[in-house]
């Protein structure tokens, strides 16, 4: 069972200004609690014991709120970035805290209503280097299209690699994935890069097994004021896991 996770929490949250001028996006309240609290509870319920949170914008606020993670039933450590390194660069920087075991990665501004253990068990059964949770969405292109073949292998992500054949199923990636430590071999140290636009296309082109696990679960994000208001209404009216 996977026991480690990383939460990507370094973002500037520019589309939520002025809220994020003083509050880092993961600490923005949703249904009366910071979204990060919901996310840490989700990880703990899924069997996670150790969490790495990357920090940049208002990072000390996040560290002060979460502390060592004990009140969430977790052991939390931090990876500070200056400058901000994007998703791939941030994960690579945290390699000393994550290497040696498979781990979950979750965006700090969104939440997917699944049993994390289901995703982890599927990943372990299929033996991939990475498994992305994916879901159908009418605005799939807006979020970045993940194309799967008939065996659930990812053949292209955001149209990359450009030489790959299109897949018959186009879904969106809500920012939750499971990675084997081998992924670090495909990341350049010290760089600023996206895991979806650089690392995954590189792995796919090399023939590594990158899978998509399809779910129709509800998903919230707080990346815009409109999305934040919708997420707040949804979790108040129909809490996840209720």
List the helices and strands and how they pair.
Blueprint: E1 4-8, H1 19-22, E2 29-30, E3 33-34, H2 35-45, E4 50-55, H3 59-66, E5 75-80, H4 86-93, H5 95-98, E6 103-107, E7 110-112, H6 116-126, E8 130-134, H7 140-143, E9 145-148, E10 154-157, E11 169-172, E12 176-179, H8 195-205, E13 210-214, E14 219-221, H9 225-237
Parallel strand pairs: 1-4, 1-6, 4-5, 8-13
Antiparallel strand pairs: 2-3, 6-12, 7-14, 8-12, 9-10, 9-11
Helix pairs in contact: 4-8
Q: CATH homologous superfamily - what is it?
A: Spore Coat Polysaccharide Biosynthesis Protein SpsA, Chain A
How far do the termini sit from each other? Answer: 25 Å
Strand order of the largest sheet: 5-4-1-6-12-8-13
Structural category? alpha/beta
- Biggest sheet record: 7 strands, mixed
Q: Kindly identify the CATH topology.
A: Spore Coat Polysaccharide Biosynthesis Protein SpsA, Chain A
> Could you tell me the radius of gyration in angstroms?
17 Å
Instruction: State mean pLDDT (0 to 100 scale).
Output: 94
Strand content: 15-25%
**Which CATH architecture?**
Alpha-Beta Complex
- Count all strands and give the number: 14
């Amino acid at each position: 069972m996977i026991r480690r996770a990383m939460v990507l929490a370094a973002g500037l949250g520019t589309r939520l200004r002025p809220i994020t001028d003083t509050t880092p996006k993961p600490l923005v309240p949703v249904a009366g609690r910071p979204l990060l609290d919901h996310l840490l509870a989700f990880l703990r319920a899924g069997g996670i014991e150790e969490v790495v949170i990357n920090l940049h914008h208002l990072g000390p606020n996040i560290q002060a709120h979460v502390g060592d993670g004990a009140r969430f039933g977790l052991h939390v450590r931090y990876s500070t970035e200056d400058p901000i390194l994007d998703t791939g660069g941030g994960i690579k920087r945290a390699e000393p805290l994550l290497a040696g075991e498979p781990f979950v990665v979750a965006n700090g501004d969104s939440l997917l209503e699944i049993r994390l253990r289901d995703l982890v068990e599927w990943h372990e059964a299929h033996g991939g280097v990475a498994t992305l949770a994916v879901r159908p969405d009418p605005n799939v292109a807006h979020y970045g299209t993940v194309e799967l073949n008939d065996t659930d292998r990812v053949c292209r992500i955001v149209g990359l690699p450009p030489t790959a054949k299109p897949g018959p199923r186009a879904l969106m990636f809500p920012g939750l994935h499971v990675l084997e430590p081998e992924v670090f071999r495909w990341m350049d140290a010290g760089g600023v890069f996206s895991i979806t636009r650089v690392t995954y296309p590189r792995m796919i082109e090399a023939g590594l097994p990158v899978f998509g696990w399809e779910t129709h679960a509800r998903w919230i994000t707080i990346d815009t004021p409109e999305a934040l208001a919708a997420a707040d209404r949804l979790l108040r009216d129909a809490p996840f896991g209720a």
